[in-house]
Amino acid sequence: MTKINPENERVKREYLNWLKEARGRSEATLDIAAAAIDRFQVQTRHRDFRKFRPELATSFKAHMAAETSSITGKPLSKATLYSTLKAIQSFFEWLSREPGYRQAVRISDVAYFTMNTNDAKAATAAREQRFPSLKQVLHVLEAMPTNTALARRDRALVAFILLTGVRDAAAISLKLRHVDLTRRRVFQDARDVRTKGAKTFVSSFFPVSDLPLEIVTAWIEEISGPGLFGPDDPVFPATENGLDASGQFAPQGYARRHWATAAPVRAIFRKAFEAAGLPYFYPHSLRRTLMQLGHDLNLTVRELKAWSQSLGHESVLTSLTSYGALRPDEQAEVMAAVATRRDKPDAAMQVLARQVAAEIARQANA
Description:
single chain; 16 helices; 5 strands; about 55% helix
């Protein structure tokens, strides 16, 4: 059995702390970095980082290329290879600047972790993203049961994510005081809510249909009020487990606390979609559903900006590029319509085109 190298573990902890405190990286990023470094250490039998040589990087790349996934049994994807190699390369680049390692780890040697150009392009290429249609999500909501408090919570959760576009991590950390049913908006306060990049913003409800709003309103009314949940309690409380009548461990209702992770949200979505006879779509995919709805509504420039801000984006371009890509069949349909259209583009679209071009130029010069 290979012994753990104490000095390696010490400097690895320093690096992870540097990522967190000096670079402001999230826990998820730290986990990815730690897993990548651990993978390299196992393959090199915990060899001292000071003994790093280019051939170790080359050997590690070859080892990963031949490795198979423990889940699928297939070779590791190029995206996995790319992210792992980038994480290790970043670690050794940092190490090359640290006292005690500057002479041992040369930055030119660290470059050997670089993936070949063609594989890197394949790993980072944009791919068509699957997402449900609005009609499909509404069908799921109609099919979900309501016979128990937990079933009504689960249904309200799916409805709320469709209605607001919030990410799953934000949804499970929201408190009742963050939701304003009267003004139809959600205050995603980063002091309490786990938003992406710890950003604080207000999301307005999207005009998806009356059903999601009715479901969410009924749920909040059910759990709120005297003797029930107050402003600082979760909108979607965690499941309370206990022993049932037969002595088996089973859900007993909900607790006055937040879920610790978003895993239960994904489980709820999987169960709901499959029960409705549809393939599983993860919660985040509903943000693409909302952008598809935005396309269908032919929003004005002003409306598109409000739509984008409700998704938490400072730039309309982020909404369009990250969530607004058209499927190939839609792209062909739009292009065919453009080819047969004889009138000039409307003024609003000309303004939007100029804004997009200016944003592209700004990002290129940033």
